[in-house]
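ugh ok fine here u go
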Amino acid sequence: MHTQFLLEFPWKAITAAWPELTCAIAEPLAGGLINKTVRMTSRDGHRSVLQWLNPVFPGTVTDDVAAICRHLASRGFATFSVLPTCDGAAFLPHDNGSFRLLSHLEGDFLGPGDIGVAGLTLARFHRALADCTHVFSHHRNIHRPPFYAGRLREALGAHEDHPLHGEVEAIAREVLPRLHPDCDWNTLPSRIVHGDPKLENFWRTADGVTLLDLDTVGRHCILGELGDAGRALCREDGRFSMPLFRTFFMAYLQRAPELAGPELAAIPESIELIAHELTARFLIDVLEEHYFGWDPAHFATRGEHNLHRARTEHAFAVSVHEYLDDCLKILVQ
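structure:
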């Protein structure tokens, strides 16, 4: 695993902020394209997690995370906690990003056979935060399908000479008309949601299953969250899976906060919509030759890698469309 970045950490400032990390053993943890995460083992054997937070997130997002963790814990939802600096701050500002220290949770990720557990956990998470009054310091609206429709049109116009433009345009012609939800999300309740409910963010501990990566938590329409959960968790071999949909959402609805009728009815189309949104984002990245996770071993350019991603996500979105009526029957039975 790449460890060079550890030499770039301001260890003097870090150990001044958290003296317990003096002479601690640092072990980089895998995963995460944006932030850098290190497991710290102090001289007494105590473990904690040090994170460098990419400047795409303001340092104050850790204040939000700390408040959410406290509220979750007060509602009996197992979670980590933000360990303050010796001055009582939630994070350590730095020239490039910020640092924070989190409690270490022993455990493991959920697996593909735990989709029902994931549904139940996300429901408990939403219910636990239903009465949270925290005012967030930042607003990061991840799901904005009409916005990405506009961005895709702009990219198509600005990069007509890109070698993959023709292939992008062919997919875009199918995607663009579908990036406008039938239900106006702005008319629906604003709820606190996780923001990235993929399987890799569900963590099983001795005290129960929790959710990691709370930097994307905020107040949004729940359809973006549930559409993304369906997109990430209800798929098998690249296609939409009705059995997984049934497993996930039947478990979710057992403990979910009460949803309004329009919210419940729009879940199936939201899965298709979020898949089309992600397709559009990948197509934009094709033309702009940009993305965090380029795999140069298998793709000559970022554009080719993102075109592969776009095709995969578009195929999934098309497969969802075939089952919209069947999904709705499950939700309203």
